Amino acid sequence: MSTHDRYDEAARERIVEEPPKRVDAPVRTPFERDRARVVHAAASRRLAAKTQVMGPQSDDFVRNRLTHSLEVAQVARDLSRALGSQPDIAETAALAHDLGHPPFGHNGERVLAELGEPCGGFEGNAQTLRLLTRLEAKTDGAGLNLTRATLDACTKYPWPRAAAEEPSGVHADGSPRFVVKFGVYDDDRPVFDWMRRVAVGTRQCLEAQVMDLADDVAYSVHDVEDGVVAGRIELTTVDEAAVWQTVRDWYLPEVTDDVLDKTLAELRTVGSWPVTPYDGSRRSLAALKNLTSDLIGRFCGAVQHATFEAGDGPFVRYAADLVVPEQTRLEIAVLKGVAAHYVMRADDRVALMERQRELLAELVTVLADRAPGALDRPFADDWRAAGDDAARLRVVVDQVASLTDASAVARHAALLGRS
């Protein structure tokens, strides 16, 4: 049985039924078509100019949201194929997982959540669902009109805001979690309920679990790589006491020094772990790339083995769950802690984040005051069609969330006459 055949008619269903493709069109599965739609979406192109950790304009080498998403997609596809699930679904979910992020990442998300409170708040994952099912132009009234299985795989937090837990800890980019995590706004509930028709409670489907893990693996490894190349991290001289405190502050509050010491010792047994300082040479860069590859393989291999050990499958949809070993969870947390301590807690970054929040807050205010004239045409049309002040505020939030870091700064300067 092919991986495609393991997904029933309900998994392949779209919100809006589509006519058959031309007989001379390339033969593709519904899930391959989903992937193509996300790849060609305008929101995907905008990820190239959105912050990952250090900012897309800070260096030619560091990741932005697009390059990060491509790397997450590769990890998700490989792991999905190894498990025997449909790799196009997991890859598409990975390509889409950051589409809803506003300018300046989670820092911008915090501002939009606070200012958007009267219309139900803001959350990047809920915004992703909104983009995929409403804001991206492909099928009138249904966004990209993806299959149920793909949309479900894109849903990291399959519950509404009312069911969300209070925020705690920090995001991958180091910003504190001020925003509750949820996957759907109240006015998008109809499509969410359609998508989750075969789901049980708030459980993620297996493909969403694969996407979620691939995201975790990619940023834990690649943020360290970026920090090394930028000269902020030196893996041969890690300040363990300071890093362990960051791990406890941000990720694992109960973990002890002894456990973290043993975890780092295990990571150092990876053959490509550096024994000499990074010097910027091609040899050093190649060694760093080998380390990145080895760590990703280590984490995904451990998860694949544990998942197979836990059950017979099939490893699709709601027939099984992904199993992440405790040792793998600890090793990922140590890498996050290294990046968090040396990159995210830097004083220059903290000051920049404060200015970013001020800029976005001012931008929301002025766009709301000058709407619909100051809005792009699609959002101006939405604003005119909105039935009340809350709906109009949601449109303004949609507009600001659609901007890149650079276009937010430019729009702010154009409207307020200053940067």
If you had to describe this structure to a student in words, what would you say it looks like?
This protein has helices spanning 9-12, 30-39, 42-46, 65-83, 87-96, 105-115, 124-135, 148-153, 189-195, 206-229, 240-250, 257-267, 282-310, 326-344, 347-370, 377-385, 389-402, 405-416. The chain is mainly α and 419 residues long.
Quick structural overview:
The chain is mainly α and 419 residues long.
Number of helices: 18
User: Helical content, roughly?
Assistant: 55-70%
Number of extended strands: 0
CATH class of the largest domain: Mainly Alpha
Net shape: globular
Number of domains: 3
Q: β content, as a range?
A: under 5%
| CATH architectural name of the largest domain | Orthogonal Bundle
- Span of the ends, CA to CA: 58 Å
Rg over CA atoms, rounded to whole Å, is: 22 Å
Going by helix content, strand content and strand pairing, the class is mainly alpha
CATH superfamily of the largest domain: Hypothetical protein af1432
CATH topology of the largest domain: Hypothetical protein af1432
Low-confidence stretches: 54-62
